Amino acid sequence: MSEFRRDCRIPLQSSAVRPIFTLADSGFPVARYVKASGSVIGETHSQSPSSALASSVVAPPSVATWFILPFMLAAVSVGTWKLLGTDLPRPAASGIPLLVSVVAILVLERFFPLHRAWNRRPDAADLILLVVNRGVDLALLGGTVALIAVLGDTLRGVSLWPTSWPVALQVVAGITIGEFLRYAMHRYSHRPGLWWAVHRTHHQPERMYSLNGPRLHPLNYLWVSAAHGVPMLLLGAPVEVVLVVMNVTALFVVFQHANLKLRFDGINRVFATPDVHRIHHARQIVGIGANFSIVLVLVDLIFGTYAPADTEVAVDGIGSAGPQGS
């Protein structure tokens, strides 16, 4: 395990802060976080002789890997929209693109891992919560649609959703609305109390891989899903557009937790990639709070909680350090 000095704080928006790995007198690695000026602002001590240096076990990925995320994003969005236009039941039409993307990410983890030690069999809890939380998604959607049907004319009279916009812009609008709401709830869930007691389930694993994403207490997943689905439906968005937004969000929930070392040049300043979100799960960061976004890092940038994605996390650097302020 690594232990971070609690009196140290890493500036969240300083791209000049980088880790420098050295060996202590004991022979164990030490990661010192250094400013451009050369001053040390924090350090991580490892109790394992090799773990802190293990973040470079895989050769740098090729430039071609930069296209993987844009391709998957387009495939899930377009694939979901097209299948919703067929005779398939909506759960199947929205579930097929998501299932294919999860399998693809699991395969990618075998070819482009950040840490090979993280590539183990999925945990039983992760598989169970993956299925349960997909049910939460569909139940929430069905319940909200049923509520709207009951309210009927009342909601139709106050419809504010821009249905005349191109579908792509409606999807972007839905994701943006959801991101602001999720950010507020996610950040609040890192404070001591009931919300952290629920959210800590997500921070218990000591490795990062794709199925860590849906590893959320069902109550936790309920607000993740409700943040975009409920407001969009109440504002009058078509169910098909809501399902595309839900699938894009679910894709990022899985992808941003993946054990992947790909090229994300420029993408890290737009989307919550594995490089960005991994820092959120780093043991020395959990109690401080950074990179709360699920899809767009815009909200982290606005509220000053964005941590640059140029800091690699050691193989034993993942896990819960307690809520913020603890």
- Shape verdict: globular
Mean pLDDT: 81
Q: Rg, please?
A: 20 Å
Give helix % range.
40-55%
Which class of secondary structure composition applies to the elements? Answer: alpha+beta
Number of strands: 4
Q: Oligomeric form of this entry?
A: single chain
Number of helices: 11
**H/E element order:** EEEEHHHHHHHHHHH
Cα end-to-end separation: 19 Å
User: Hey, roughly how much beta strand do the residues contain?
Assistant: 5-15%
Low-confidence stretches: 1-29, 46-58
SSE topology:
Layout: E1 2-4, E2 18-23, E3 29-34, E4 40-46, H1 68-84, H2 90-111, H3 124-151, H4 153-156, H5 167-188, H6 194-203, H7 218-234, H8 239-255, H9 274-281, H10 283-286, H11 298-303
Antiparallel strand pairs: 1-4, 2-3, 3-4
What does this structure look like?
- The protein is an alpha+beta fold.
- It folds into two domains: 2-55, no CATH class; 58-303, no CATH class.
- The protein has eleven helices and four strands.
- It has a four-stranded antiparallel beta sheet, with no helix packed on it.
- Helix 1 (68-84) runs antiparallel to helix 8 and helix 7 (218-234) packs antiparallel against helix 8 (239-255).
In short:
The chain has helices at 68-84, 90-111, 124-151, 153-156, 167-188, 194-203, 218-234, 239-255, 274-281, 283-286, 298-303; strands at residues 2-4, 18-23, 29-34, 40-46. With 326 residues, the protein is α+β, with helices and mostly antiparallel strands.
